[in-house]
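Q: Here's a chain of 456 amino acids. Please give me its 3D structure as tokens.
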Amino acid sequence: MARGDAPQDSYHLVGISFFLLGLGTLLPWNFFITAIPYFQGRLAGANGTTETLGTNHTSPADTFNFNNWVTLLSQLPLLLFTLLNSFLYQCIPETVRILGSLLVILLLFTLTAVLVKVDVSPEPFFSITMASVWFINSFCAVLQGSLFGQLGTMPSTYSTLFLSGQGLAGIFAALAMLMSMASGVDAQTSALGYFITPCVGILMSIVCYLSLPHLKFARYYLAKKPSKAQGQELETKAELLKPDEKNGIPNSPQRAALTLDLDPEKETEMEPEEPQKPGKPSVFIVFQKIWLTALCLVLVFTVTLSVFPAITAMVTSSTSPGKWSQFFNPICCFLLFNVMDCLGRSLTSYFLWPDKNSRLLPLLVCLRVLFVPLFMLCHVPERSRLPILFPQDAYFITFMLLFAVSNGYLVSLTMCLAPRQVLPHEREVAGTLMTFFLALGLSCGASLSFLLKALL
């Protein structure tokens, strides 16, 4: 919370910097999955043809299973580095973690852009790309965790700006793909322009990070070391979840905690009765309180990552070949998902339903499992087992709308409800646990996608 003697954020430069840093942390994942048609074209030997970037080459018979592997190797590093988080924070300086990660990500994305112009056979290209995906996402996990730690010293508004940048990364990647496809240049040049875009984004992130020590506002807050570095991700994510204060609900779990913990009058009144601080919270006790919410979070991401993008990227338009067929998947899969996901997350700003004591939440989460067969029965050509029951484009678009909105809303809802189920001094542990289960759900979904694709 900002203090009265704090300097002003001149021209909102610090806010803009954290917004761009948030954008930079999720650009790699989104640019790789949005470019699945390009990678499939390269692996199918279509390098240099006019259909490489826009044409969907995915099919259940794909020998490389590219969209499955790119999802799995993007999410496993998140789970791994969530477990290694405390070790990294203690052993590696913050500046090295952030700046080093940004430089490595920039280097590897530059390599991806260079490979657009290099004629490489499919097997080495697949191996190089998968290695890049693994290392890029490993350093993205380190970068994101380190930036969340820095945000712990900043006013809550800057957490919101950071997360807003992350939320727009997918939309940015989808729009970059559409612009590359619509540019009218040959496929190679179009793909090169597409992969240069995140390189520029990462460069801007580096400039933003290097500029922070030169801004008085940033120096004022970043000089203060947060007392709790871990569990910060939950609290910062909850900043986007602002229920209506008119109904008596605080704007966010953090502000509820501040009301409980930092009110001087209440502290004075409670001091004679509670002179001692609460003891160290037990992980087991906290887990007992939030296990159902954590399980819901795991299931939401398991369902989402099991079909997106592994199955949804294979869906093609049922119309005759033409412009709409070429733009169908980038628009109806990636752009639509990211826009509706952001909308779903924003809905928690107006209401939180069901509440933390309701048993309706697990039911809603379980109902999302229905999206798995629905997407698998859409128009995916060259299938060998399951029939196509929903061939029209309208079916896929409708399913994607509901799928994306429910994903964004339920993720935000579970991340918001978890800290409300524990005592104020237990919220750090709850945040750490929810962050772990978030990564676990992503990894489970990515692993399950292999089985679902084999069933087509």
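Q: Can you summarize the key feature?
A: The two ends are 52 Å apart (CA to CA).
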